[in-house]
Amino acid sequence: MSKFETKRVLQIVAAGACSICAHMAWAATPTAPPAEQITGPTPAVLVTTDVQTPLSPTTAAAPEEEPRLDPREIECIAKVIRHEAANQPIAGQVAVAQVILERMTDGRFPTTACGVVNQRGQFFNVDSYDPPRNDTRWAVAHRVATEALGGDGDSAADGALFFHSAGAPMPGRTRVARIADHIFYR
């Protein structure tokens, strides 16, 4: 299981544990009101695993600056994942995102995700691609892109700069991995 998948499983388990603890605390209250009926979808629970050191009463905490991710960069990566790898397992989608990130650090390619995916002759026409935003495949692609750009997610194709479907040869490149229907190269 990859670091990304392990983290996701832990978040789901933690959310379930929080829900159970909250229910037990509520049920133990002698004057608890009748349970509220939920008729729509169950609301999502945000779980964080960050542990903060307690501060003394006179010490003020400075808010941590999280790096802001550019929504356009996320969208460029998500479009490629959705178009090229939505039918692949998560590991394959993460590897596609990592190819884009690897290219951003290689001097032969642009230094931004959108620059990489819009480079002539490399990917489909990303700018004109408008995938459905209301389906699971888009949600997964967007999440994988966000986490990859934020530095999360281990790739099973470390160092790969290229990928293609398994049926097409790519002579002259070093094969890094095969994940489902894609082969990744340096």
UniProtKB/TrEMBL annotation:
Residues 1-27 form the signal peptide. Keywords: Hydrolase, Signal. Transmembrane segments: none annotated. GO terms for molecular function: hydrolase activity. Residues 88-185 form the Cell wall hydrolase SleB domain. InterPro entries: Cell_wall_hydrolase_SleB, SleB_dom1. Pfam families: Hydrolase_2. Gene3D superfamilies: Cell wall hydrolase SleB, domain 1 (1.10.10.2520). This is Cell wall hydrolase CwlJ, involved in spore germination.
